[in-house]
Amino acid sequence: MKADPRRLLDLLMVARHGSFSGAAAATRISQPALSKSIALLERELGVRVLDRDRQGARLNDFGKALARYAHAIESLLEQAKEDTRLRSLGIEGPLAIGITPVTAVGLVPAALELLTRETPNVSVSVTEGLDDEIVSMLRSRELDLVVSRLGVGPDYPDIAEEPLILADWSLITRPQHPLGGRSSVSLSELSAVQWVLPAGGSAFRSQMEMVFMGAGLHWPNAGITTNSILAIKAIVMNTDCVTLMSPRLVDVECGAGHLCSVPLLDVSVLRPVGLMWRKADEMSPIALRFAKVLRQVAGHDAARI
Predict the structure, then answer these.
(1) Counting Cβ atoms within 10 Å, is residue 251 exposed (0-12), middle (13-18) or buried (19+)?
(2) What predicted TM-score, i.e. pTM, was given to this entire model?
(3) N- or C-end of the chain: fewer Cβ atoms within 10 A?
């Protein structure tokens, strides 16, 4: 027996509000009707999906697995409604793209410039986040496509990947720094520098840790850490601290003479930047068009991002 999608949405509301009474008030459905819906869902599936007690109702492991699909259904319905609204206005879309900081500069903006030139009446939303956040949004259908570094997170069987370009790393300093005038540098030479580095738990930090490991070096114990790339750049501009970044992330600052980008010699493995999408879903025409434009931009800028 198939699970009724409406009951999955009811389950999602109970999970969000933590109780049948809260979900009933939010959805304007009677509490007995909501309880009956969940009971029928559990009967259809043959398992319990909620743990109930005096404090409310919480998803168990079965319920957590179902909630992801319920969230995808909800996102799909919202997209259908928005698609219809936009079409009534003569606008194509919506197209929802997920990006990370390394793709927010250069690659994606250039592709969007071409897309909007070819398709002026288009609705596009761009969400920047950590790799695991935007991939989770892609899997739950909140996003249509993701442009990010590949190979830095779990290998999800439902997600397809297409490498586009290799993402390189450089040492970033202020112009007055003794290393700022070098034509190249090795990480092994930098044992005495002052670092400003991404905080733990971020994808940017994980990627940078791989750079140090690839060079056979330990992660620096001393230094400044922050979860803000803007803060990292500002600190490097105003102190003798240095950091590692893709040179494209500092193109503007280097062009203005505020920062210097020094190529690294001992980065052995470069992670590709690429496109991610859901394997089981057919891309919308506007998503296919953006993917095509993105490949064109990557072909012109394949050396670095």
Answers:
(1) middle
(2) 0.65
(3) N
